[in-house]
Design a protein that fits this description.
Rossmann fold; 3 domains; six-stranded mixed beta sheet; two-stranded antiparallel sheet; 12 strands; flat
Amino acid sequence: MLKKHAKFFENILFIADLIVIVLAWLFSYYIRFYSGVMPVEKGIPSFQIYLYLIAPILFIWGFVFNAFELYRPKRLSSYIDEIFDIAKACSFSVLILVSLTFFFRQYDYSRLMFATFWAMTIVVMMVERIVFREVLRYLRRKGYNLRFAVIVGTGKTAEDIFKRIDIHPELGIKVVGFLSSNPGYLQDDKKGRIPVLGTYDNIKDVIKNNKIDQIIVALSTEEHHVTIDVLKRIDDEMVDIKVIPDLWEFMTLRGGIDELDGLPIITLQDTPLYGWNIVLKRATDIGLSIIAIIITAPVMILISVVNKRTSPGPILYKQERMGLDGKTFDMLKFRSMQVDAEAQSGAVWAKENDPRRTRLGTFLRKTSLDELPQFFNVLKGDMSIVGPRPERPVFIEEFRKNIPGYMLRHKMKAGITGWAQVNGWRGNTSLEKRIECDLYYIENWSLWLDIKIMWLTVWKGLLNKNAY
């Protein structure tokens, strides 16, 4: 029953997508040649030659949307993720369509119409998907299209999964009750007493008597040995089975489930930079760092000249920092302190009114202009423009002992600016808050988040009261 419901809505969505795509193609033809918005210099081409492309369009979009897994159940996914997937799928489909038209040399298709169609498909598909999801969520809140579930277990994991389902009625999952090793009741703060329908031994009767669609196994570590027995007792009942491992408590960065040749693999932590994400971020870093170096070259030359004339010592200062995967590199800065500033004190953080600073160094550190040479670190590949700020290895050993999850920040390449910095956690501020921001950035990384951080860095200015 559950599979049939899922397939039914999948088919409805697929048909709706195809109808919307055809309408977008026809409307793009109208906008291009009849609306008056775009100039028509060579006359209006025959509508028939554009009708020829409808069949290939439907095949391409249907195939690509399936390849991008846009018809998988989205009960737990966010709109942002789906919209981004739609944009990628539509862009890829248009590229295939444009490539295909090179084989129809007898027809002169308008490239401007393809561009219009590309933009329109992204917009209308986003609107259509949002309307479709909202209608489904409304129906589920009203009690339609529900999936009835029973949770196997009564421990903390079972309570957590119930509470998360309970606050999201739009998911369409109704927990009928729990199964326990002992009959009884489970107290819930919001709903009162939630029934324990029986024990693990009579799970099959519970499924039949309550018309259960889903079994959610949420056993504690101590009860893991029961899991196999529970699965055997379910036997061939036509239900979906979900297993919530208590390992979820240890999932940190982008944890999830992967598959290797049919074998499920639980990922407790991972980096967001893989595949095209690496290429995209690196290409952005190279392009923007070159632009930044060119634009700031006069400023860097001026700083170099003044620095050399006002205090003895080198212009640049190299300092060992820890970056991606715990590897160290030499980070470049304009020298802002006297030579051998740490000869007597050893490695220490800069403090307010630090006497070790040079006159120019005070200005450079306050305005963050001492960081400009780090664009060369970005160009080299040691750093990224956006990422967690790198720290000195001599301090890291102490931080990792006192701050849980500190080393996880090294799952992303170190940056010139970051989410912590634009939120005010810079310099001599809370390390815990800084780590919290760094892990949030890694967990939620996207190119758009990088752009947002760059913009906030420029918008809020380079001056910072915590920059000593």
